[in-house]
Amino acid sequence: MKKVAIIGAGIVGSTAAYYLSKNPVYQVTVFDHGIGQATKAAAGIISPWFSKRRNKAWYRMARLGADFYLDLIADLQKDGFATEFYQQTGVFLLKKKEESLEALYDLADQRRKESPLIGDLRLLSRAEAAEYFPNLKGFDRLLYASGGARVEGSLLTQTLLTASGAEVIQKKVSLDIRDGAFWVDSCCFDQVILATGAWLPEFLSPLGYQVDIRPQKGQFRDYQTALVTDDYPVVMPEGELDIIPFQNGKISMGATHENEMGYALKVDQVMLDKMEQEALYYFPRLSQAKVVSERVGIRAYTSDFSPFFGKVPDLSQVFAASGLGSSGLTTGPLIGYHLVQIIQGKNGSLNPADYPIEIYIKKEK
User: Fold this and answer.
1) Residue span of the signal peptide, if any (predicted)?
2) Could you tell me if 227 and 285 are in contact, meaning their C-beta atoms sit under 8 angstroms apart?
3) 3-class secondary structure for 332-356?
4) Which of 84, 150, 175, 225 could bond 249 through an S-S bridge, CB–CB 3.0 to 4.6 Å?
5) Cβ neighbour number for residue 1 with a 10 Å cutoff
């Protein structure tokens, strides 16, 4: 039996734990400090099809990442686990220049051939949109895709860890290499997955690596309303703001994208109040809602905004992924699954050469 340590229980680590634990050859132990994790703070929208990023490798990952949720959900349900963390309620896309909506419609319509998950695609008037999400303001027309989904990050990772059956140790740990063996928390492991997001440099720098990862602070605010929000679509205005309705009247608003804040996890009311003012422009009824919680997480970015995954250079049994940025809930499960495929010597739908880890993790000379 091979002993595998997974450090980090966010979206990548928890997915890897779930799929690796399906193979009886592996004994999986998960270590998680539990502080600042991006996934735990995240309420996410799965809707990559409107992106105009020119990076084709990134779009392929995001497109396949959205599709992969259907496989993940089927696997969990087959294992007897509930999957309320994912709800396909559709997405509303708003633009300040509404004439650009036609071009986005055409883009998504072309992409529908390889991504049928997009579903029904329509330009809606305000009156038509109100049938899906009443009392939205601040627009005349919007673009709707029925395949858009919302994800509750914390519930997703909890479900995956429970389903994995892996031992989860809540502790801050480090990776030590002695005589070619990999040590974590005084235990020796055959293989290690570093799924530590923005904290990856903390693990690899002491081992003599330069890691091209920087942190970005993201904040959410959660509201409780008296509305029946279960089937409301998620709303994506232009800019940082998203309005994400969940079941039972809960609505999340976020998320900020704060650079130069390091790993600071203190809630900044000024930033959230500013975002709330923007949200009220589109959804004035939020003023009647009660604020129930605020969340902070730290995203990981590379200098060129591209994610990476694979084997750490010169460490044949250490694997890592990072740089997922604000699309981590879309791409994270697929990346976690692919790390497991690599460990088992199998191929997946992504070519690791398109996401080359050696560009971002370099051994210091």
Assistant:
1) none
2) yes
3) HHHHHHHHHHHHCCCCCCCCHHHCC
4) 225
5) 8
Cα 256 to Cα 34, 189, 225, 273, 338, distances in angstroms: 21, 38, 22, 11, 29
What's the count of helices (H) and strands (E) in the chain, helices before strands?
8, 22
Tokens 């309320």, located at residue: 84
Compute φ and ψ for 261, nearest 5 degrees.
Answer: -105, 0
- Please compute Rg for the chain using Cα positions: 20
What is d(CA 194, CA 322) in angstroms, rounded to the nearest whole number? 9
In the DSSP assignment, the letter for residue 37 is B
First to last CA, the chain: 36
Dihedral sign (CA 231, 112, 53, 356): positive
Residue 70 identity (one-letter amino acid): L
Q: Reduced to 3 states, what is the DSSP secondary structure of residue 135?
A: coil
Q: Which domains does the chain have, with CATH numbers?
A: 2-40+154-213+303-363 (3.50.50.60), 87-151+215-298 (3.30.9.10)
pLDDT computed for residue 180 by the predictor = 86
Cβ atoms of 57 and 354 closer than 8 Å: yes
Those residues of the chain that have pLDDT short of 50 are none
Taking the C-alpha atoms of residue 154 and residue 10, their distance in angstroms, rounded to an integer, is: 8
Q: Which residues of 247-272 are buried (b: 16+ CB within 10 A; e: fewer)?
A: eebbbbbbbbebeebeeeeeebeeeb
- pLDDT tens for residues 195-235? 999 999 999 999 999 999 999 999 999 999 999 999 999 99
